[in-house]
Each structure stands twice: as structure tokens, then as C-alpha cells.
Amino acid sequence: MVKHLLSMQDLAPKEIEAILNKAAELKEKVRKGEPHELLHGKTLGMLFAKPSTRTRVSFETAMTQLGGHAIYLGMSDLQLGRGETIADTARTLSRYVDAIMARLFKHDDIIELASHSSVPVINGLTDLHHPCQTLGDLLTIREHKGKLKGLKVAWVGDGNNVCNSLMLGCTLVGMNFSAACPKGYEPPAEILEQARANAKESGTKLELLNAPKQAVVNADVIYTDVLISMGMEREREQRLKAFRGYQVDSKLLGRGKSDVIFMHCLPAHRGEEVTAEVIDGPRSVVWDQAENRLHVQKALLVSLLA
């Protein structure tokens, strides 16, 4: 069977560990300037229904450094934008490329894409999941903390796709996870159910709260994201009102452990979900997160294609 990565649930804990180990190995090769063209002659097709900075550049650079090639395909570049079905697009691209990375609006669309693809499909972001971000986050946490198991990650803000994947990833690898979301903005019930099953299996604690001050107590990691995601601009005033009290400032950060680190998947809106003194301060590791997207995606591509 073809292996896809559509959500963190597609990976077993040992597979996550293997990807992180390979990412660390490849990162060291970059630091030393050592070639690692493990995917020579391979081609990645990259479908983008939504604009991107980190996802596009990291995947394209990843394929270049691995000796392969990446093709950017926006909706205006595809017949998909003119009515061709997702199934037909998947069948066609499978005859040309060795893997497909797709950044789409609806998660159901990437499920359909994968179901008709004969090559691996990687989720570069959908409305429900962002597994590549979580892999980069886990690598970053491991680099700064020396381990993953037993640590506490506190999420503050919207129960969105990044929150969903992070919650699943943390509970898979044995990390405690506490999310503070306003009422009506919690993660979907089916994803919470998956995360609770993961937590039971790994023996970790999963909390869903409404109070940020409570969620971040003794946290090793405090994480947030934008309050108004792409496509939600019409909800701006409603969301700013709903998320009052959810800004990560130095006072909230101080409720975590003395060596707490701050994380954000970017782009960030200083003065909304986080203050400048936090994201630009000494506890922030957001630029390491951004860089590590490259390394984990290289490791993922190697695991799927090499």
C-alpha cells in the first residue's frame, strides 16, 4: 500500500521518532556542508490552493538539497481550477511525479486526492490538520529540552488545524497537552476523541480548558497561533472579542516553568495573539521552528521515497 501523511494519526510513535532522528541527521549534514542527495531524480508535485511562505519554500528547498525537483502548481496552473475532478487530477499527477504535497482548504479534498493517488500524498495544510508543522515543532522541542516524553505543552487560542495536529502529535509521543480555548472555539470532537485515545495509550494527560492562566501552569512549552486564520477575515471583530484574555504576554509566560519556551507557527500578529516582547524575547524559539520545517520535511520525503 502507498503510505500517505494526511494527519499525525497516520504515524506510529516509532515512525515519528525515526523521522525526527533522520531530520537531526540531515540538519547536521547541512551544518557541515555535506551533500545528501538521497532523492536524486525524484520529483515532488506541490499543489497550492492557499498561499504559503514556509510550506512552499521549505518543501522546494528540501527537494533541491536532496537532489530532486519540485514543481509548484497553483490552482490557476491546474485544470482542477477549471472543473477537473480531484480524482482525475490525482490519477494524472501519479503518472508524472513521485509524490504529491497538497495545501488545500478542505481536509476531505486531500483524503479524496490520496484515495486516487498511486504515489504518496503529504498534507501541507488543510482546515483540520497540519502534520508537517507538528513534526517541525516536535524536533524543535526535542532540541531545546533534550527529550519529549513527560513534557507539558500548553496551547493558548483557537482550536484550529495547528492545535489539532499538535495535540495528536504530543499525545502520540507521550507528552502532556493542555489547551485553553474560548467556548465555541475548541478542537473538533472527533479529533479530541483521537487525542484522548492516544493519551490513554501513552499514559499522558490531556486537558481542555477555557482559562489560559490555568492551562499554562508549569508548562515546558507555551504555544499560540493567529486569532484570525486565512479565510476568516470577515470574523475579525467577532474573534478579537471572543479571544480577549488569550494573548500570550510576559505575565502569562511567567506562569510556565522557569525555562519555558514560546512557540508560534507563524505568521504572527504582534499585539493580537502575542506581544512583541514575548515573540522577540529570549524564550522564543519561533525561528528554530521555521527552520526545522525544512529538516523534518526532508526526513519525511526520504522516508516515503528513498
Classify the beta-strand content into a percent band: 5-15%
Cα-atom radius of gyration: 19 Å
What structural class do you assign from the helix and strand content? alpha/beta
Assembly type: single chain
Domains counted in the coordinates: how many?
A: 2
Estimate the mean pLDDT confidence.
96
Can you count the helices? 12
* Total beta strands: 9
Encode the helix/strand succession as letters. HEHEHEHEHEHEHEHEHHEHH
| Overall shape | globular
For the largest sheet, list the strands in their spatial order.
Answer: 7-6-5-8-9
CATH topology of the largest domain: Rossmann fold
Major sheet characteristics:
5 strands, parallel
CATH domain class name of the largest domain:
Alpha Beta
The helix content is 40-55%
Name the poorly predicted regions. none
Determine the CATH superfamily of the largest domain. Answer: Aspartate/ornithine carbamoyltransferase
Gist of the model:
This protein is of the alpha/beta class. The protein has 12 helices and 9 strands.
Description:
The chain is of the alpha/beta class and 306 residues long. It has 2 domains: 8-130 and 290-305, Aspartate/ornithine carbamoyltransferase (Rossmann fold), CATH 3.40.50; 132-285, Rossmann fold (3-Layer(aba) Sandwich), CATH 3.40.50.1370. The protein is 43% helix and 14% strand. It is built from 12 helices and 9 strands. It has helices at residues 13-32, 54-65, 86-94, 107-115, 131-145, 161-173, 189-202, 212-215, 236-242, 250-253, 276-279, 286-305, and strands at 43-48, 69-74, 99-103, 121-125, 152-156, 176-180, 206-209, 221-224, 261-264. The strands form 2 sheets. The protein has a 5-stranded parallel beta sheet with strand order 7-6-5-8-9. A 4-stranded parallel beta sheet has the order 2-1-3-4, sandwiched between helices. Strand 5 (152-156), helix 6 and strand 6 (176-180) form a beta-alpha-beta unit. Helix 3 crosses helix 4 (107-115). The chain is globular.
